[in-house]
Write a structure and sequence with these properties.
The chain is mainly beta. The protein has one domain. It contains 2 helices and 18 strands. Strands 3, 4, 5, 7, 10, 13, 16, 17 and 18 form a 9-stranded mixed beta sheet that branches. A 7-stranded mixed beta sheet has the order 2-1-6-9-12-14-15, with no helix packed on it. A hairpin with a 4-residue loop joins strand 17 and strand 18. Helix 1 packs antiparallel against helix 2. The longest helix has 15 residues. The radius of gyration is 18 Å and the shape is globular.
């Protein structure tokens, strides 16, 4: 593990009722994480998380926790892909913890996760959402440096996602991929590569999304995207996408966000990020 980095980051966001504005009340970052100066657009606070190194290497261990206080409205974005390099038998560990208090809103918009040749990755995401709060968490996975002809050469990529609502565990999912197994199990015959994305949406009542599901499925068909929508509890819904084209995937993500903005109005404030 020589040369590896162990790093923790903590972010706390609070709502100022007197100014009717969300602000970053506490920040502790360093090592594997840099936070840009947050921008308040009048409705939501937008901040960019950046990995100041080229990516993650053998033995790197990164933990980030973000607490969104009652009534606060926050969007966390990443301006570039997260790359995992050859770990030489010592996996990279990434832990993400997001706590969203009552009547708050959090949107997490990362770019692609790209495990490169020889990499082993363990990623754990824990999301806890309070009553009356809402959240949209996006996941994006690319199986290697496609443009360089490097596909499915990573060793393993494991992603564990746990979602709590009002203190109760609602969802626990583990995705374990091995490069040697080749294309995604849901890939269409003839696809040389398979990109994956997922929306995790938490609302007090996800039934409000149902009128938009047919629209989402129709636009995915037009972009040749395979789409699956699952209601996992009364408050949680997942929209999963697979495609053999990254451009089509990006377009679909943008269009889905547009369709969902009637239910999650703060998505309109972050449209420009796509």
């Amino acid at each position: 593990m020589n040369g590896s980095l162990q790093s923790k980051a903590y972010l706390s966001f609070r709502y100022d009722a007197e100014r009717s504005q969300t602000w970053l009340s506490e920040r502790k970052t360093g090592g594997l994480c840099h936070l840009s100066k947050p921008y308040w657009d009048g409705t939501i606070l937008i901040a960019q998380l950046i990995n100041p190194t080229a990516g993650f290497f053998s033995g790197d261990d990164f933990v980030i926790q973000a607490d969104v206080g009652k009534g606060a409205k926050v969007a966390l974005t990443s301006p570039s892909a997260t790359r995992f390099y050859n770990t030489e038998g010592v996996p990279v560990h990434v832990t993400q913890k997001f706590n969203v208090s009552e009547n708050a809103y959090l949107e997490v918009l990362p770019d692609w996760s790209i495990p490169q040749a020889g990499s082993e990755v363990s990623q754990k995401t824990e999301l806890s959402v309070g009553r009356g709060a809402s959240c949209l968490l996006l996941e994006r996975f690319m199986p290697g440096r496609i443009a360089h002809g490097e596909t499915y050469t990573y060793k393993s990529f494991t992603a564990t996602t746990s979602l709590h609502y009002d203190g109760e565990l609602q969802v626990h999912e583990r995705m374990h991929l091995k490069g040697e197994d080749g294309a995604w199990p849901l890939a269409k015959d003839g696809w040389e590569v398979c990109y994956y994305s997922a929306f995790w949406i938490v609302l007090d009542d996800v039934g409000a999304i149902f009128p938009h599901v047919a629209e989402v499925e129709d636009l995915c068909v037009k972009e040749d995207i395979h789409c699956g929508v699952s209601q996992l509890s009364k408050q949680i819904i997942a929209i999963r996408l697979v495609s053999d084209k990254s451009v089509s995937m990006k377009k679909s993500i943008s269009k889905i966000r547009t369709h969902l903005s009637d239910v999650l109005p703060y998505l309109k404030s972050t449209d420009r990020l796509f």
